[in-house]
Amino acid sequence: MTPLQSALARGKAEIARMLIERGANVEAASDGSDWSPLHYCAANDLPDIARLLLEHGANPNARLANGDTPLKMAVAKAHDIVAATLRDNGGLQ
User: Fold this and answer.
1) What is the model's pLDDT at position 90?
2) Residue 27 in contact with residue 58, Cβ under 8 Å?
3) Most buried residue among 12, 49, 50, 61 by CB atoms closer than 10 A?
4) Over residues 1-8, mean pLDDT
5) Is the pTM value of this prediction over 0.85?
6) Under a CB-based contact definition with an 8 Å cutoff, are residues 26 and 37 in contact?
């Protein structure tokens, strides 16, 4: 797991923000995982960090091996603000 993914998986928004602002790869998936940082935001209801990732070039349509996008995950978990953020930035289910 990358440091950014670790921060996101644990809901540590301020650490994630610091890492992103200091150049963390907003697309990096860890070894053995296909989750993008946006998938972690969708799963953990982190709309502000999702917005920051998108501002730094994160792909709103990254797909897991099963085809799930961050938007699909946010909708399934009823994380409405993350879902709206993703939709506003071109996210598809």
Assistant:
1) 96
2) yes
3) 50
4) 88
5) yes
6) yes
